[in-house]
Amino acid sequence: MLRKLLQREWVLNRTNVVLMFAIYAAFQIYMVNSMEDTRPWFVMATLYAAVLTSALIVREDKFRSTWWACVLPVTRLELIRARYVASWAMVVGALIGSILLAAFTPGSNMLVSEIFNPWTLLIAATAITGVLAWVLPFAIRFGMLGMMIFLVGGQVAGVGLLVLGRMTQRGGAGGERPIRSALAAISDAILGAREAMTPVLFAIAVVVMLTALNWLSYRFAALMFGRREF
Fold this sequence. Notes:
By secondary structure, the protein is mainly α. It is built from nine helices and no strands. The relative contact order is 0.12.
């Protein structure tokens, strides 16, 4: 059944997927010639691909194809599973295309060997999980409103942290910056865990945590979509 649902996703969205990949490729051709550092470019490419993928779900909701999908002899849990698999497949496909563009675009400044560095791949996987795990449940449940929750929520959180940082800096002694200190403490904790483990063990731990986060997002999306009425 999962294969049939993925085929349905492709039939309904193939024109938009091709258009999305064309726009994405044009932008990445420009970026591989403009940016100098490979890792920041690749992480940015992963974020861009994840957001574009989420936009396809919003489009389906706009044209009520989600409503028609619920008429099919499948459970809502199977529909959610197909959405998650399709989203990850499209992001991975976009990133494979990005790697090919980085390797073969004339004048490219990117080092393909740096992309396949295990830490670069882990950072990219973390970025994808951070976007999809947060966006997909709300985009599937609320459509365009869910996308706005992600965008506005991120902006509000950023402004709130900025204001809080300014306020605590004024009230702190000796110009201390509690937020920066907290972020530095988190970074030090991650680096400490990395140093305490072998590289392979640390990578496995990160993969397990990312997998768990995706699974929790999937279950949360299923819970919210199960309560949706059409």
